[in-house]
Amino acid sequence: MKLSNEARVGLMVTVSFTVFLLLVGVLAKINVAQSGYRLKVYFGFLNDLRISAPVKIAGGIRIGQVEEISQSAEKTEVTVWIDRKFKLIRPTKFAIFTTGIIGEKYINVFVPPSIDVDDFLGDGDKVYGIDPPSFDQMMLTFQGFMQDQSGGEILAQIFQNSNKFVANLNRLVDENRYDVKQSVSTARVMIETMSTDTKILIEQLNLLTRNLAQISERNKEEVSITMRNLSEVSAELNKVIFRIESGRGTLGKLLTDEEVYNNLRDASIYARDLFYSLKQDPSKLFYRTKQ
Q1: Residues 55 and 66 sit within 8 Å (Cβ to Cβ)
Q2: What is the pTM of this model?
Q3: Residue 47's closest CA among 133, 151, 154?
Q4: Taking a C-beta distance cutoff of 8 angstroms, is the pair 81, 38 a contact?
Q5: Which of 108, 110, 131, 163 stands the most exposed, by the fewest C-beta atoms within 10 Å?
Q6: From residue 102, how far is each of 95, 116, 206, 240, 274 by CA, in Å?
Q7: Is the sign of the CA dihedral 183, 189, 193, 198 positive or negative?
Q8: Which are the contacts of 244, defined by CB distance < 8 A and separation ≥ 6?
Q9: Distance of CA 12 to the CA centre of its chain
């Protein structure tokens, strides 16, 4: 059976394209093997992580991808390929994240701060990843708190308690309706009164401020003169105090000269004796005592 020219051309194109794809795949694998390294990351829960999922650092920079997912004992083994230009230190953490709320799953890489660290992860190293939280796990935890009761029973109890609370609240309001109304009326009157009083107080304060400003402006010269007079009086008082402390003048002598103080004390004693003697015998004031 002879093939037409069109069939031959189509067959040649198909074979050529297939060979081209095979060559691209082989070269890509060779290139990947030469420019990266592989790590074994173990997870207990993948949360629908798939092969070819990206591996990102800081949630944005793509540094590799997931190559293989297999089961190893109780853990799930995820083989990831990392670009060789990204060197990860050994304390690096791996966790499964989701892009947005319902986006694709990817492995996020946390690199802790480090200085002068030479211990890096290499080809074939094994690390343990951080399992992602899931809604099912949260529901299981919630179910454990419910003490073997179904969710429907819990919801029914919640609604019953809510109805009881609303009924008790309504009964309380009905029983104390008059008091509540009086309290609301009193509060409203107090608020209105406080609002009026506050408005009046603000007006009075504004008026006082304006009056003080006017008084200050009108009596600026008098205030200045008074301040100058006070300054002069203070200077004179300072001079007087200086003279007293220096022993000048009668008051200064009295305060600083010990002899003047003694004379005044003796005179006071003599005068006291004289007055006492005259009080006992007033005739001494008119008759001199015979010698």
Answers
A1: yes
A2: 0.40
A3: 133
A4: yes
A5: 163
A6: 17, 39, 62, 93, 119
A7: positive
A8: 251, 252, 255
A9: 72
The encoded tokens of residue 128 equal: 């343990």
36-43/126-128 β-pairing:
parallel
Which amino acid makes up residue 26? V
Whole-angstrom CA distances from 126 to 2, 56, 122, 144 are 59, 18, 9, 34
8-state DSSP, 77:
E
Closest residue by Cα to residue 123 from 218, 207, 34, 52: 34
Rounded distance between C-alpha atoms, residue 130 and residue 107, angstroms: 10
SS3 call for 187 = helix
- Tokens, residue 230: 């006070």
pLDDT value at 65 more than 90: yes
pLDDT tens-digit map of 73-131? 778 899 999 999 898 999 899 999 988 777 889 999 998 887 878 888 989 899 999 88
How far is the C-alpha of 142 from the C-alpha of 119, rounded, in Å?
Answer: 42
CA-to-CA distance for 121 and 136, rounded, in angstroms? 33
Please give the DSSP secondary-structure letter assigned to residue 99: S
Whether residue 64 contacts residue 91, with contact meaning beta carbons closer than 8 Å, is answered with no
- Spell out where the chain has E strands: 36-43, 54-57, 61-72, 75-83, 93-98, 105-110, 126-128
Question: C-alpha angle 159/164/165, rounded to 5°?
Answer: 95
pLDDT in tens, 208-225: 888 877 776 767 777 678
